[in-house]
Task: structure prediction
Amino acid sequence: MQPACYIEKTRVHMSTSGSGFSRWAQWLTVSVILALLGAGGYLLWQRPAATPPAGKRGGDPARRVMPVVAVPAKSANINVYLNGLGTVTPLKTVIVRSRVDGQLMRVLFREGQIVKEGELLAEIDPRPFQAQFTQVEGQMARDQALLANARIDLERYRVLLAQDSIAKQLVDTQEALVRQYEGVVKFDQGLVDNARLQLVYARVTAPIAGRLGLRQVDAGNIVRAGDANGLVVITQLQPITVVFTIPEDSLPPVMKKLQAGEKLPVDAYDRADKVKLAAGTLLTADNQIDPATGTVKLKAQFANEDSALFPSQFVNVRMLLDVKRDATVVPTAAIQRGTPGTFVYVVMADSTATVRRVKLGPAQGEVVAVDAGLELGERVVVDGADRLREGARVELASRDPAAASKGGDGARKKGGGFRKKGGEKAGE
Result:
């Protein structure tokens, strides 16, 4: 049997040995873990970077393949238009007034009626004018009788003078009397003509052909020649004119055409500039430029057979100035503007896109002429250009009819919105 002190020493030794072993195991475990992490990091550093699939997010933009829609530049004739804002102006506008004072007896027109020149519109009480006419007519008849009697006496005096029976003074006096009566009769004739004219003026007729406005006075009222409003207003609608403005820089070619006697076609569109209202020709240009706006007024005439143009109506005007033949044209959707200026993305033979600066010409509808910077047949990007950069790899695609019918931009929708020429969506 061992002493108690020996047993206690043994326990202490064993405990100390167990604690050292635990620390050693821990350090060994940590070292192994660190070695494994270092080896993994080294392997990842040595492994080449994987190329992400084309069209997937998170890849190198320089290596991504962008689906785009591209069309070739074509040759076409482009109409060169001058646009302006115009106002419809009638050739003639007349305020119908009474030429005499009197009571309005009858109104013979309807508001808005189309009338011809000379058509009866209203009647004024003619009785005062008829009475005046009768009076001056009777006065002239009396003076004519006196003139005839004076002429008979003059002939008798001349016979007596030839017989030396009377003095020549009597003959001279009778000749003066005849001339006096002749003047009176002529004066009376003027009074008769004036009275007859007043009777004519009692019948108010249309001075021009056109469309009547609203009635300004009713039957039974006393009308006067000096009334400001008159009876009604007539405006000529056929033909009709449009006055519009163009910049002063555009005036020289217009004047050259006018001086050469050319008829420049002019079209009038509605306020929204979508519906064509009428077609006409340019009449003339104003004789001065407005210094405040730097514009000049032009006047065009329209037949207006369907009355589509109405006086004081605001219209958009397009005047055909010239035709640019065999021009290089591209869709307006291909035109980009930014730091390089005005440019397009051209798809090269190696399926890369390059920035090409261009000089634009006139536009017509959805196409625009390119005066410089682009050749016929070169393909320009019309959809998907917002994601392109110089040298970007592209893949030609066509528009998705389903996406187009919904009004969405196929290039910007998830899933592409484009379809490859093989039928599947680009990027799949």
Notes: Residues 1-21, 45-59, 401-428 have pLDDT under 50 and may be disordered.
